[in-house]
Amino acid sequence: MEIKLRVLLLLFLLIASVSAVFLNPYPKIASHSPKSDEDTGEPLFLTPYLEWGKVSLAQNLSFVSHPKLNWIESHSGYFTVDKKYNSNMSFWFFRAKIDPENAPVVLWLQGGPGASSLFGMFAENGPFSVTEDLDYPPRKYSWHINHNIIYIDNPVGTGFSFTDNDSGYSTNETSIGKNLYEALRQFFQLFPELRKNSFYITGESYAGKYIPAAAFAIHERNQEATEDEVINLKGMAIGNGFSDPIHQLNYGDYLYQIGLIDDNARKEFEEVKKSAEKLISSGDYTAAFFLMDSLIDGDTSDSSLFKNLTGFEQYYNYLSILTDDGSAAMAKLIQNAQMRKAIHVGNLTFHGIDPNDSNDVQMNLIDDIMRSVTDWISELLNHYPIAIYNGQLDIIVAYPLTVNYLQQLNFRDREKYLKAERHIWRVDGDIAGYVKEAGNLIEILVRDAGHMVPRDQPKWALDLLLHLTHGKKFSHTKL
């Protein structure tokens, strides 16, 4: 009865509140529009040029010209993915440093929901990072070294992506997959020379839903597409992915085993988990979310049981209690007129994540948070390799929670996976983590990394990706 009352109270708070932040370790940057007297250029909408057949002109217009970035070729602009609501998705594309004509094309999607993929680009795996002085030092283990890589602000309404109508926001993963497919269809129209290249979808956190949604949309449409419309999907990599909530809620045992809570707290966590599972099973996804938020996230209220018991301000690396998200440099970047002009977003609003602001992306996905996408993952595993990796030190999408949902998957090699042997994965002699393979499923634990694996272990993250995209064999020994 006490828990039921708690759920009702939290639902009341939802109605009374206009802001919420879900499962989100990313920089809390307020939405921003530049000053009216700044020269930010004009937003570049590429869809009309593609429809007119002016591909070369569109490529030239999308070229990013910035005095500090003249050492790398990149392109940026907007694809209109829904004309009815004027929904547009912002992208930034970088050609591979090595053999760009043949290098795989990789899409990176940030989580959130509502986090800009610019965070992943600047803080995790892009060609360069950003400092508070707006310098852009090259990244040693950038993913663009061996891959053509595209970053898309997803879903519509995230980052520089936008819609002119409330009905343009996605309320489920099917809609998100549809919009991503349309953006990618236009991307390969813009760069037809890359259509033959292998294509992979990657990302982390809530992208554990976006990636299967996009991949399944591509998989379905490829079956009816003409030869020059097929997207050459070859695989996926999901990092610390929140994909199957009902099987990723066992925080009590996990936090107890790593010493952050005692047995009394573990029992309370277990009680709330069981109640959340019942709510999910009955289809009350919104109530299930708010119940779990009161337990672990504390994003729609002042705190959570986890934060109260541990004193932690964040839940993406249990070796640190404080947040260090690089938000100051990111905030300066999105406000900078020179950069806005270079990437062709003009004076359009950057939709950030700020607990003091209403976030339309998150609020429209409120009923999606606790839904599973494992039906898609199971089907995709029958056709494509999927690397599902976790940082050892993450809390919010901890490795044991991911393994729990993987063991429930109903795919062709399920029994093989359940019996598979685990191996040590080494990179240049160092133990990078542990790997288990069965058919198309590659389960990986990355050692000494938290929620953002490419940021915490950039060398190992690149090595992991190369195994998927270049057929590199894991250097491992049997345990």
Automatic annotation (TrEMBL):
Q: Which GO terms describe its molecular function?
A: serine-type carboxypeptidase activity
Name the top EC class.
hydrolase
Record-stated family = Belongs to the peptidase S10 family.
Protein's GO biological process = proteolysis
The transmembrane residues are: none
The UniProt entry, under InterPro entries, shows: AB_hydrolase_fold, Peptidase_S10, Ser_caboxypep_his_AS, Ser_caboxypep_ser_AS
Please give the superkingdom of this protein's source.
Eukaryota
Keywords, sorted A to Z: Carboxypeptidase, Glycoprotein, Hydrolase, Protease, Signal
Pfam families (alphabetical): Peptidase_S10
> Which interval of the chain is the signal sequence?
1-20
Q: What is its EC number?
A: 3.4.16.-
Question: Which organism's genome codes for this protein?
Answer: Phlebotomus papatasi
Q: What is this protein called?
A: Carboxypeptidase
